[in-house]
UniProtKB/TrEMBL annotation:
Organism: Chryseobacterium vietnamense
Protein name: Outer membrane protein assembly factor BamA
Source domain of life: Bacteria
Length: 775
């Protein structure tokens, strides 16, 4: 205890000295008469409000004061220190400029503080929160070239609402407002609050916009506060239309004509008028049902607009359909800009025409993409795609995509001398902006549902062992409930795996090992798959999440109809290949926390299980789970970890094959920080493993059991990411901290770490080279 106490005292002494040195270093750079502003404090003098009200008011007032003092860390001002010690740069670039203006922070001086302005802010904010008789003063406390401003506030009693009246008259707009009063935000007994009043005005405006009052505005409403009709600090509110409200804002509008310009160009409009005549005779030749599509060159089928537009002739205007239509037009993917105008066509009947001005995107494009693959059923690693896209393939906003790709999983180091994985292939997809089915599918979402048809081929090469030819095809639907929720249903998803170029060396070993034999066996997999994705990572929030759940049902109906049962010697085949029958569930959950604009924490959990039955004794190799690699547990080479506590060192050193499992659990955590412009760094920890559902005599310890927690592998490392906007190159150096195939009680590897030993480095340090983030 004595030794720890001395260490603690030394730490405090060093910290105190460092604080003093840095603090004094900052003030010594000040000129004569200057004082470093260290911030403001608000004191509230009031005995009639609760402690919580005091605390909330104090926090809000301090948050509104300007300017903010220099940032601190552990009581120090390191950014200010860097600004002070850096020389004034001669150019707006270079090390000195970066240190002074990017890392450093300019000193905030007492002379920068407008104390009278802050006093007015305090009084105004207090009154806006119901403290009508607020008074404020300030005092400045200075010492050792540092100054703090202390504001004293006497807010008085807070006024409460004692009655809310809505103006009544016979006008249509007032009748509509009266129908909305039961949902008012202004409640008796609640404090007077200007922010709540503004929210009430917005609420009324939003509801009126849903009922045809297109030209209405929140500023047309005034809320008058009368404190003379009540006693004991009460206030009565009177909600009414302003006397100068424009007549147009009080009228309820409906849709007359709906006119679409799918090839809009700003040059088509001169002096506020369209170059194409808008009289009824000229429009008639462009009519399609109840809309007009001005498309003389017939680049688009009119029916796509009939599906996307939610306004029809005679409909009462409402904001929901207005926004829904714009978003659906954008989600078609063929228009770069979508603009909307409403022009009064009949002022007596209160009708206007709806114009949709659509600027097309480039119809065809060629793009190079760099991706990181994270699906555990696929080879983990990095992929380069060359994509060709046609966005209006049959003139109905159909997107046709064709791609060729090459991929790799490349790792250096590690205990096993494994071969790397190379993949190449091609795929095509036709995406139709509607549900093609024998039933009607109605979607009120702002996103257009799509029918997707895909075909693909992939060549997988495990050097010196075998190659696999994968043929895939699918037909299904993708639809979104909103920007956060997406559904992907493949009614039929077919995979045919055909091995080729199996080396004699591998075949000999496969004949003696059933698990290796299944790797190069022909596989026919078909059935429906469904995935649900939820994400709010696109929002500017401190905490965001991503979730994807997948259900894969292979051969279920076929197995039921044919009575397939491999355990009773009733294996069924199609084209001479046994079809696979299994159920597979996988969950991928991610959580992101943003500390600052340049630092964040990313975490991920993966949990999945695949269960074979009927026509299959085992889940097909290509659909099993794998662990290890650049997008998984990075301290272990790709697909070498597991299953369970199986020891890969028992395998013939000249043999290498992927270790697969029926169950997967994985947890990853990664701290990410920006170092300089395109250079990012990371510190990460990965944990997890895979297991089998049944015993395998060739892989002892592979079966999942109640002891599974003792078979969790753990790895950690550091990484660099070169973010070039169009390409993110990732370098992750990892080492194992816990190895599940070591003896029980000796699986943690901390005591074995020896960076000075070249053999240890060779066997334990794994360098992952990949493209994109791992998750």
């Amino acid at each position: 205890m004595s030794n720890k106490f001395h260490i603690y005292c030394k730490y405090l002494l060093v910290s105190g000295m460092a604080s003093t040195v840095v603090s004094c270093s900052n003030t010594r750079f000040l000129k004569e008469g200057q004082m470093l502003y260290t911030g403001a404090k608000v004191k509230i003098e009031n005995d009639t409000i609760s402690k919580k009200e005091k605390k909330d008011l104090q926090a809000a007032l301090e948050a509104n004061l300007t300017p903010k003092p220099n940032s601190t860390f552990l009581g120090l001002r390191p950014k200010l220190y860097f600004y002070n010690i850096a020389k004034e740069p001669k150019k707006d670039k270079g090390f000195n400029y970066w240190l002074k203006y990017k890392v450093g922070e300019k000193p905030v001086l007492l002379g920068d503080v407008d104390r009278e302005f802050n006093k007015d802010i305090i009084v105004n904010y207090s009154e806006n929160k119901g403290y009508f008789n607020a008074k404020a003063s300030y005092d400045t406390v200075s010492k050792n070239k540092k100054a703090q401003v202390i504001y004293t506030v006497k807010p008085g009693s807070r006024y409460l609402i004692d009655g809310v009246k809505f103006q009544k008259d016979s006008t249509l707009v007032n009748q509509e407002i009266q129908s909305l009063t039961d949902k008012t935000l202004l409640k008796n007994g609640r404090p007077f609050d200007l922010d709540v009043i503004k929210a009430e005005r917005d609420r009324i405006d939003n509801r009126l916009k849903e009922r045809g009052f297109y030209y209405f505005h929140p500023d047309n409403i005034i809320v008058q506060a009368d404190s003379t009709v009540s006693k004991n600090h009460k206030v009565e509110l009177n909600v009414k239309l302003k006397d100068n409200t424009p007549d147009l804002a009080t009228q309820q509008f409906s849709i007359d004509n709906v006119i679409v310009f799918p090839n809009y160009n700003i040059q088509d409009v001169k002096d506020g008028k369209y170059s194409i005549p808008m009289d009824k005779d000229s429009l008639s030749k462009y009519r399609f049902d109840d809309i007009y599509v001005i498309d003389p060159q017939h680049k688009f089928k009119p029916k796509i607009f009939d599906r996307a537009l939610y306004f029809k002739k005679g409909d009462l205007y409402n904001r929901s359909n207005h926004n829904l239509t714009l978003n659906r037009l954008i989600s078609l993917g063929v228009f770069k800009f979508v603009k909307n105008e409403f022009i009064v066509s009949d002022s007596l009947s209160h009708k206007f025409d709806a114009y949709y001005l659509l600027t097309p995107r480039q119809v065809q494009s060629l793009r190079l993409e760099a991706l990181g693959r994270t699906n555990s059923a696929n080879y983990a690693g990095s992929e380069l795609n060359l994509n060709w896209t046609h966005r209006n393939f049959f003139r109905g906003a159909e997107q046709f995509k064709a791609a060729i790709f090459g991929a790799f999983d490349f790792q250096m180091g590690g205990a096993q001398n494994a071969n790397n994985i190379f993949r190449a292939g091609t795929n095509v997809q036709l995406s139709i902006p509607r549900i093609v089915a024998p039933f009607r599918f109605h979607s009120s979402s702002e996103f257009v549902p799509r029918t997707n048809i895909t075909l693909g081929y992939e060549f997988q090469n495990r050097t010196q062992y075998y190659t696999l030819n994968n043929f895939t095809g699918s037909f299904g639907y993708v639809w979104k409930e909103n920007a956060r929720k997406e559904h992907d249903l493949k009614v039929i998803d077919i995979t045919l795996v055909s091995p080729a170029n199996v080396t004699e060396e591998y075949q000999i070993k496969a004949d003696a090992n059933p698990a290796m034999a299944r790797v190069v066996a022909k596989q026919l997999i078909f059935g429906p798959t469904y995935s649900y994705t939820y994400t709010n990572t696109m929002l500017p929030k401190t905490n965001t999440v991503y979730y994807k759940g997948t259900l894969d049902l292979a051969g279920n109906i076929t197995g039921l109809v044919t009575g397939a049962d491999v355990k009773k010697d009733k294996e069924k085949k199609i084209f001479g290949i046994p079809f696979s029958q299994y159920v597979k569930i996988e969950n991928d959950f991610r959580f992101y926390h943003k500390f600052t604009e340049k630092s964040s924490l990313a975490t991920r959990f993966i949990g999945g299980i695949a269960y074979p039955y009927g026509n299959s004794e085992f889940v097909p190799f290509s659909k099993q789970f794998f662990s290890g690699g650049s997008n998984s547990i990075r301290a272990f080479r790709a697909r070498t970890l597991g299953p369970g506590s199986f020891d890969p060192r028992t395998i013939d050193p000249g043999t290498y094959f992927d270790q697969s499992g029926d169950i997967k659990l994985e947890l990853n955590a990664e701290y990410r920080a920006n170092l300089y412009k395109f250079l990012n760094a990371a510190v990460f920890v990965d944990a997890g493993n895979i297991w089998l559902l049944h015993d395998d005599k060739d892989r002892p310890g592979a079966k999942f059991s109640k002891d599974f927690l003792n078979e969790i592998a753990v790895g950690a490392g550091v990484g660099l990411r070169l973010d070039f906007s169009i390409l993110i190159l990732r370098l992750d150096l990892a080492m194992p901290l816990r190895v599940p195939y070591y003896q029980k009680g000796d699986r943690w590897a901390f005591d074995k770490i020896n960076f000075g030993d070249s053999n240890w480095r060779k066997d334990n340090l794994v360098l992952n080279i990949a493209i994109g983030y791992p998750f």
